[in-house]
Amino acid sequence: MSWGFLRDLLSGVNKYSTGIGRIWVAVVFMFRLLVYIVAAENIWKYEHDEFECNIKQPGCENVCFDHFFPISHIRLWALQLIMVSTPSLLVVFHVAYRENREKHHNQQLYRSPGKIDGGLLCTYLISLILKIAFEIVFLVLFYKLYNGFKVPRLMKCDIRPCPNTVDCFISKPTEKMIFLCFLVVTSCLCIVLNLSELTYLIFKYSIK
Where is the Connexin cysteine-rich domain (predicted)? Predict the structure, then answer.
């Protein structure tokens, strides 16, 4: 898929963000989106073809692969990137609504259309809460689906149609483990940044 839309979305919201929000955009773009496109996608590209079990029973490898990887790491990572970025659309739509309303009335209705205040502040806070929620949900999902944040070298499978317990192996487990840890660390960093920005905005405007 083309990630240009996501990049343009993040860049468009960047001018309405606080300093912390701009750091979040940089982290998502540099350490998540680019890493996904340049490196991670290629590592998991042929994961099903490179998954091997020490048996040639028809269907055994397929059911074992589906059991250990109900959702591909890389597809779940892509879905996470999309979901944590889409709340920014709320801010874009709100700003577009302001600009369209002023254009329709042919006068300035807002003191600072491009600043975070009033209704735009509420929209921005909601988008931050949604980002935090999506990040936590996907971290829990990764943990539950893969029995922790790890990529084992050897997996034992006894699911039918396998006639007995077979040993299954995945390719490049160490490399995949490194990228999985990187994914978890960057997700946690984004949660911290979003929480910091949320706290900063609430504290700043509650004082005002």
Answer: 134-201
Contact, 126 vs 194, CB < 8 A? no
Tokens of 32: 């998540």
Q: Tell me how many domains the chain contains.
A: 1
Taking the CA atoms of 104, 105, 108 and 114 in sequence, report the sign of the dihedral they define.
negative
Neighbour-count burial of 139, counting CB atoms closer than 10 A to its CB (0-12 exposed, 13-18 middle, 19+ buried) = middle
Determine the structural domain holding residue 116 and report its residue range.
3-207
Alpha-carbon distance of 194 to 125, in angstroms, equals 10
What digits encode the pLDDT tens for the residues 127-181? 899 999 999 999 898 888 777 777 788 888 888 888 888 888 887 788 878 888 8
For residues 8 and 11, what is the distance between their CA atoms, to the nearest angstrom?
Answer: 5
Task: Name the 3-class secondary structure at 129.
Answer: helix
194 and 135 Cβ atoms separated by less than 8 Å: yes
- Name the pairing type of β-strands 154-157 and 52-53: unpaired
Question: The CATH number of the domain where 95 resides is what?
Answer: 1.20.1440.80
Q: Note the pTM of the prediction, 2 decimals.
A: 0.78
Q: What is the C-alpha radius of gyration for the chain, rounded to an integer number of angstroms? A: 22
Q: Which of 176, 183, 205, 150 is nearest to 84 (CA)?
A: 183
